[in-house]
């Protein structure tokens, strides 16, 4: 049995503001250590529960945050960018399940450090379904027939996961007070919780269905600023809604939609606000 793990940073316990998740700021190395420890709790449990292969994809920012020398020695780590499938790079139909650790809630929703890819995105949709990183990544996993078994993060992230993925196991390592404050478990307690929930998720894996994406999906992104929409609209095949910062793209499948989203958000980040 193979397990795929995507690890973001904002949903890790104790990480509550940019000082922990920005590599230029003073709490970042602390954040790296706690992030790596949380990943290890799930990795080690997966091996104990019979997994023969665990692939971990570093999925935060420049995607080089996990401390490889501290990971379980049998782990395979995908590190760095640019990656064609970003947060779900390396995921394919050979995996029995996926786990999303350190995840956060989508933009415009309550939660610690909530956002969707970039801070210029207000809302993102696949057809009529609002998605953040969690939902979009789950759709890509579903395209390959892989169910998302475990999602770990704050309470808002857990609620978002449960709304999208029936039967998913969630691990709440902190409860949001505001976007930059939370009631957090200590790393020791979050580790205990993650081990329990990982064991539970693997035991019930056959009860969770992949989140099947729609055929020929329409990707729609609502940006915060019209200039961001103008930049995103430079990608061929997109349409911009006149008078609103909303850009859409008709994709042939969810993977094409995902890569279109990566291009559109990268372009949007070129917008200057002064």
From TrEMBL:
Keywords of the record: Aminopeptidase, Hydrolase, Metal-binding, Protease, Zinc
Catalytic residues identified in the record: 115 (nucleophile)
Annotated Zn(2+) 2 binding sites: 8, 60, 104, 133
Cited InterPro entries: DppA_N (IPR027476), Peptidase_M55 (IPR007035), Peptidase_M55_sf (IPR036177)
Claim: Transmembrane helix is one of the keywords in the record: no
SUPFAM superfamilies (alphabetical): Dipeptide transport protein
One of the record's GO molecular function terms: metal ion binding
Binding positions (Zn(2+) 1): 8, 10
Key word Glycoprotein present: no
Protein name: D-aminopeptidase
């Amino acid at each position: 049995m193979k397990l795929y793990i995507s690890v973001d940073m904002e949903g890790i316990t104790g990480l509550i503001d940019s000082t922990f998740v920005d590599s230029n700021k003073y709490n970042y190395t602390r954040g790296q250590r706690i992030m790596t420890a949380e990943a290890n709790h799930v990795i080690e449990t997966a091996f104990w529960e019979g997994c023969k292969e665990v692939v971990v994809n570093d999925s935060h920012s420049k995607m080089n945050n996990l401390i490889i020398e501290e990971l379980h020695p049998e782990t395979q780590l995908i590190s760095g960018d640019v990656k064609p499938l970003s947060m779900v790079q390396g995921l394919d139909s050979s995996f029995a399940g996926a786990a999303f650790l350190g995840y956060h809630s989508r933009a415009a929703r309550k939660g610690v450090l909530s956002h969707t890819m970039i801070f210029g995105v207000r809302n993102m949709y696949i057809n009529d379904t609002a998605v953040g990183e969690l939902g979009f990544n789950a759709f890509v996993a579903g395209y390959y027939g892989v169910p998302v078994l475990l999602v770990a993060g704050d309470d808002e992230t857990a609620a978002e996961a449960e709304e999208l993925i029936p039967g998913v196991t969630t691990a709440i390592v902190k409860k949001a007070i505001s976007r930059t404050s939370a009631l957090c478990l200590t790393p020791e307690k979050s580790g205990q919780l993650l081990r329990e929930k990982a064991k539970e998720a693997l035991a019930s894996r056959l009860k969770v269905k992949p989140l099947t994406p729609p055929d020929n999906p329409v990707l729609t992104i609502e940006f915060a600023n019209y200039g961001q929409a103008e930049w995103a609209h430079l990608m061929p095949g997109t349409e911009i809604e006149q008078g609103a910062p909303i850009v859409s793209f008709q994709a042939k499948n969810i993977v094409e939609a995902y890569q279109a989203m990566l291009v559109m958000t990268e372009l949007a980040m070129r917008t200057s606000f002064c």
